[in-house]
Every structure is written in structure tokens, then in C-alpha cells.
Amino acid sequence: MATESKNTSSTLENKPAIGEEHVSEGTKEYLRQLNSYEAQGPIRPPTGQPVTTISWWRGITSPLVVLFIAVVVMVALVFFGFGASATPNQSSSSSAPSSSANSTSMGSTTSTNTAPSNVPNATLDYGNLLAKYTIDPDGAKHFTLTAMQVMWEPVKGHRQLAWTINGTVPGPMIRVTAGDHIRVTFINHFPEATAIHWHGLEVPSSQDGVPGVGQNPIKPGQTYLYDFTVHDQDVGTHWYHSHYDDLTQVPGGFYGAFIVDPRPGSTQAQQAIHADVEYTEFISEFGSYYVINGKSFPDTQPILVKHGQTVHLRVIGADEMIHPMHLHGHTFNVVAEDGHMLPQPIQRDTLEIVPGETYDLTFYAWAAPGSIYPWHCHILSHLMNPGQTADQMGGLIALVEYAK
Questions:
Q1: CATH number for the 3-28+105-402 domain, one of 3.30.1370.10, 1.10.1200.10, 2.60.40.420, 3.90.1150.10?
Q2: Is the dihedral of CA 335, 340, 343, 346 positive or negative?
Q3: Averaged pLDDT, 319-348
Q4: What is the pLDDT averaged over residues 4-17?
Q5: What pTM value is reported for the model?
Q6: What are 167-226's pLDDT values in tens digits?
Q7: Model confidence pLDDT, tens digit, residues 71-92
């Protein structure tokens, strides 16, 4: 069987390795500019205005307040005792990990799931790499995906437990052409059952990856074969993700892109997006971090462009919340949603990335060589990493960096 790997217009091969020593020059310059800002002194009230003070001790020691607090404490103790006796023990492998409320400190090395001691560190720094395949005797493109836990670094030096495909967040990008016969051998090395859903593809229910509907859950140690064909109606930006214990596995990193290109020479091919560079951006959470392609700023990969290029962004909402993503200094065109071309492009500078949806955006790189523009969520609390202060930046930020 021959091994093939589709070559795309993506610039993934140019992505830098992780680590502070490999952070792009544009990112370093951006951080230097931020750090050079000196905050003004404290703001003081105008002189001459009286400052009113309130005796808080007198208020809380009044008889009525003391009685109310005592009643609240007694009721809380009763319900706590009842809840503790009624709640069964649960294993850590089935607990839901990801929530912005379950924040850990910057120095934490574990996720909200308790990481078993035998989980290996990730061997690759970035995900979203193009998946390789073999050609079966009947012409089918045969991929192999392995569900496995690794310790993943959303920022350098801070590892958290990840539920990955082939050891990266996101998992490998499957890229095929309309009309292709697809086989996927799925191997489950998770400590619990799982299944994979092909989000946006029109496949038979037996291949749709929903346990209890078209298949049984894939138990630990089991292998499952998915077998389907992608058609013209599947052309566009789609993705795959877990459809079992979703609240743990999806925000834990179990997702990846599934791109279907049009048949060469077809009408769809003539109407397809033609760009000089292409990037795929997953917007999500990972433990207590907000991440783009599994990384938080300043470890997010830059969007590298040259003056005069047309840039194509495939943006996928893998989170449980909406993120309004804003591009500084540019107006972009929304040309497709959920893989389907729009009748007319919509011009925006900010776009709400909704859970489960995909968007194809294009913009013209008009700015001067060496320019740097942020692409970030406009919920400002999503621009911080655990342990950071308000004058530091992290989370959902990637930089559009122009070649000098």
C-alpha cells in the first residue's frame, strides 16, 4: 500500500517550535511594547471632599444579624451532611474537567482531571498537522487515529492532562477530495469509552459516531473501523470530535479539522476560495486556559503573511461559549459558514464564533512589511492566563505578522 499525504496551501510547515526561545520576533516586539508602558500613579479623590466611613463591626454584631447568620449556618450543615451521604463515589476519569470557573494557578502542572502518573508528555509541540493515509486495494484513503492521553502544554512549562488524537491538540487535519472513499481505523487507548463524530458531513447514521444511535461506545483497548464516502455536498470546512463523555473529552483536546476540497475542474472548484496562504484556527478552552489551536498567548502560533497576499482563515468553534473574535487593522470577508459558501460575502471586523460552527474568512494583507496586528477575543477576561494580572496578556490572542 502506498503512503500519501496531501499538500495544501497551508503554511503549517513554517510554524515555529514551542518555547520562549522560539517565540516569534513579532510576538517579542509586541510584548516589549506592552511592557514599556508605565502606569500612572494612583488616582486620589479631590481635596476638600469628606470621606465617609461606616462601622461594619456595629452592623454585623446586631442581634438580628447574628441570629440570621446562625440559622444560615445550621441549614447549610444539615444539607451538607445529607448531600455527602447521598452522593456516590465517582472515578476521576469520568469527571468533567474544563470550565473557566475551575481555574488553577499558573504554577499548576495538572488539569482539572487528576492525571495518572503513567501519562506521557506530548512529543510534539503543536497540533493541526496534516494526517497521513494509505491507499487500500479498492482505492479508499485509509487513515489511522489513536485516542491517547498526554500531558499537554497550553503555555511553556505548564502541563495539563489532554484527551488527544495522535498525541496533539488539535488532532491531525484530515484533508480529502469530494468523491473520496474514506476509511478510518480508530484505536482507543483512553481509560474510558469514546466515539468520534464527523461534524458537518452527510454520512450514514452507522458512521456518524453517536453511541446508542448508530454504534456502541468504543471501549478502552478496542478498535473500530469507520467507512464512508464524502460527496459534493460535503465540500468545505468541517471537523471531528468526541461524542462520548463530551464535557471531558472535547475541551480536553479531542477535536480536529476535516477539510473536503472540491473535485478538480468542477464548478465548485471554480467558485472555491483562492488565497495565497491558509490557516485553520480552533477557538476553545483547555482546562483553565482559553486556547487557539491548543495554545494560549504568547505561545499561540502567529499568522504569517506578506504584503499584498490574500489570506484565508478557517475558524472552528470547539468551545462551549461564544467568542467574538476581532481582527485589528483589517476588514475581513465571511465567505462560508458550516462549510457552505454564502450567496454574498459579509464584511466584518469582529465575528462571533459560535460553538460547533465553522467559518471561512478572507482578508487582504494591505499593511506595510513588518506590521503586527492582534486577532483576539473581545471578551477581555478571555485574554488572560491563570495567575496573570490585568496588565498582562494571554489567552485568545494570535498575532498577524507581516514579513519585513
A1: 2.60.40.420
A2: negative
A3: 98
A4: 41
A5: 0.75
A6: 999 999 999 999 999 999 999 999 999 999 999 999 999 999 999 998 999 999 999 999
A7: 666 655 545 443 433 333 333 3
**pLDDT tens for each residue of 235-268:** 999 999 999 999 999 999 999 999 999 999 999 9
Q: What is the pLDDT of residue 8?
A: 41
Domain boundaries, the chain: 3-28+105-402
Q: For residue 318, which amino acid is it?
A: A
